[in-house]
Amino acid sequence: MDKIPILRMGNFLLVTIQVDLYDRLALDLEADLVQMVNKTSSRGVLIDISAVSIVDSFMGRIIGNIASMSKILDAETVVVGMQPAVAITLIELGLPLKGVHTALNVERGMNLLKSMIGSDIQDGEETDDDDTFAE
């Protein structure tokens, strides 16, 4: 059974999707990610989709769900690495992706998360207990 690893980086969670998601894997990622936000009290979620070439309406809805659920748990969501074809598809499908912030790459996405979280997160403040969570 496939699992998408969720990396903890201080107060943030990082997910790098390296495979095309099928429905079951996307649902598992949604559940795992929301549980990890709650378990770790993370303040931000960064999802890298640079390796994803196709996003359908289901996948778009999953990303929106992750952002909405994370927001309820006091965490912001940033999606990075979106390919132009994926952006065009999302617009053509009419998916608003409420609560989803975007950035061009991981570095800009982390900076965006830090700016959204505010001054309570400093560069040197991140804990050294970075872990990978994949069950």
UniProtKB/TrEMBL annotation:
Among CDD domains, the record links this protein to: STAS_RsbR_RsbS_like
Q: Which domain of life is it from?
A: Bacteria
The STAS domain covers: 2-113
Pfam families assigned to the protein according to its UniProt record, in alphabetical order: STAS
Q: What is this protein called?
A: STAS domain-containing protein
* Organism phylogeny: Bacteria, Pseudomonadati, Bacteroidota, Sphingobacteriia, Sphingobacteriales
